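[DERIVE STRUCTURE TOKENS]
===
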Amino acid sequence: MELRKFVAPEFIFGEGARLHAGRYARHLGARKILLVTDKGVITAGWAEEIAQCLKKEGLSCEIFSDISPNPRAEEVMKGAEIYRNEGCNFIVSVGGGSPMDCAKGIGIVSSNKEHVLHFEGVDMVSNPCPPLICIPTTAGTSADVSQFAIITDRERKVKIAIISKAVVPDIALIDPVTLTTMDSYLTACTGMDALCHAIEAYVSNASSPVTDLNALEAIRLITENLIESLNNPMSMKHRNNMMLASLLAGLAFSNASLGAVHAMAHSLGGFLDFPHGEANAILLSYVISHNYDVASERYDRIGEAMKLKLNGDKKKSICKKIVQLRTEAGITSTLGQKGMKKSDIPQLAYNAIRDACIVTNPKKAKQKDIETIYEQAL
């Protein structure tokens, strides 16, 4: 086995984990905290609960919640300005991928004194970020454990990927109770996002035995629990298993990276402000079909983790299972029905082929290949 480095934050998993935010912030030297969240999380009550946990430890906080579903560069810069003006020295993020990615961007800007778009790419962050605690409220993005931050550049209409160990949170407080306020469609989209993380990490050309273990277990857990968590939204057994799957998938993709599904979804998100998890769910089966011939053994093991009996056309069986799972979860639209036009495809493919995630796709993709996949999903 070749020499490899793996990154992961300290994390606490289980019911009640979120309630330790104040104690951990105090131990890490927090004085004034920027609490990064969004309007939906505030409405659900989680942001105020965490603010109270901080206050019980004698810590003051400023709440920043002006964040879009696809967090924008200007929102990061606004948050960084508030961080500076309020004299903050610590960041806590409560929410899904958008607040957590925005929080990471704020940390980068606060320590490195440059516009967030300056840090696009791999290992471009020179100075360590302020301490960061992440408390996820969805089971999908895994931003709480990853070295990725995805930010929208609205001027270029692209999503940029910042990949750096500097954006790995110091602590993740992963509490499945927070999932009980998600609506069914958000549960479906984030669950399919986690499945995509696990599958792309497993077939990545940067995979390893360590990431493989996490990815396959995540695939098994999602296959067995996603629909059950939709049918029984207050079942802590299924919510716990989905949150665990999200964690394992995050540990896998943070260290093995992703592939064409995410490159194409990032392109859609930047160009059309397309919801990320939904884009991944729609694209996944088409990308598997494209990649299968160069990674058939790995895809077959994915099928086995999904409890498929792989006889006959294995590729078809695996793709059919993916479509069945997302359809049962309620994700039934095509890209065209969600607003993508055929005339958008060349630009979308141009952006996708330049996304950092395309590098680790198991099959080298050309722009024409990406255009074909978009057309199939149209």
